[in-house]
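Tutorial handout. Part one gives the primary structure; part two gives the three-dimensional structure as tokens.
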Amino acid sequence: MERHEHGARQPRLRRRAQGELEAQVLAALHGAAGPVNAAWVQERIGGDLAYTTVMTILTRLLAKSAVTRERVGRSFAWSSAAGGAGLAALRMRKVLDGERDRGAVLASFVTALSADDERMLRGLLGPTGAV
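Part two.
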């Protein structure tokens, strides 16, 4: 809590992590009926977030091919490039990218899979071990 004028305590706004913001932006886009502008995204994820921050996150997601954009007048309309499975995969990659020992993370993940999920993963990897 911070003190402001007249000694009143104001709650301190929690700073969101970049990955959390990306997930919120992607979730908003995924829930949209079609392409939307950045102001629409800003409104959906919280008015306390600056428009420029939303644009930065959208641009970063565009560089990761997680969103697409199309020119509409003088601005852009943004869309999610992937469905629910693609968004989950993006979150999984973010976790993996945040760890130093990728092999250990993958090994831990695979050993925790159910037998059915392990068979599915083996099927996806195929006989050569590549997707």
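Part three, for discussion. Residues 101-131 form one domain. The first strand starts at residue 2 and ends at 3.
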